[in-house]
TrEMBL record:
Record-linked InterPro entries: Nuclease_put_TT1808 (IPR012296), Restrct_endonuc-II-like (IPR011335), Uma2 (IPR008538)
Record-linked CDD domains: DUF820-like
Organism: Limnospira indica PCC 8005
Domain of life: Bacteria
Residues annotated as domain Putative restriction endonuclease: 44-131
Protein's name in the database: Putative restriction endonuclease domain-containing protein
Length: 132
């Protein structure tokens, strides 16, 4: 007797590298994001295991490409300085960015920032800084 085993091919999940949102709403916000990212990156320039990024999509959970955020600046200690299209936490030894910076713009709302705080707390960020 022959038994047929049916398998279904899973469609690979795509984790977009862009959310279609601008990095900043104005030149001052952009300047602060670049200054913070550049300053922290310079501080750790000789440490190959501190990854610093600006406006990079972070996906904390494998299999869910809707659960994501792009912090203005994030720091992941224990991760190598390599080029990434996005930060897929499960491919990063499950290390969440430990530090996140957000630079407020006129379009940010208190509700939006509270949601970000909740996201960051839920997925392992240890320090969260908001620049006004």
């Amino acid at each position: 007797m022959v038994t047929e085993i049916k398998t279904t091919a899973q469609t690979p999940i795509i984790y977009p590298e862009s959310d279609g949102q601008p990095m900043a709403e104005n030149t001052e916000q952009f300047r602060w994001i670049v200054t913070i990212q550049g300053g922290i990156d310079a501080l750790f320039k000789d440490d190959p295991n501190v990854f610093v990024a600006g406006d990079l999509l972070w996906y904390p959970v494998e299999g869910n490409n809707k659960l994501r955020v792009a912090p203005d600046v994030m720091v992941a200690i224990g991760r190598p300085k390599v080029k990434r299209g996005s930060y897929l936490q499960w491919e990063e030894d499950d290390i969440a960015p430990q530090v996140v910076f957000e630079v407020l713009s006129p379009g940010n709302t208190l509700t939006e920032m509270a949601k970000k705080l909740d996201f960051y707390q839920r997925y392992g960020v240890e320090e969260y800084y908001i620049y006004i």
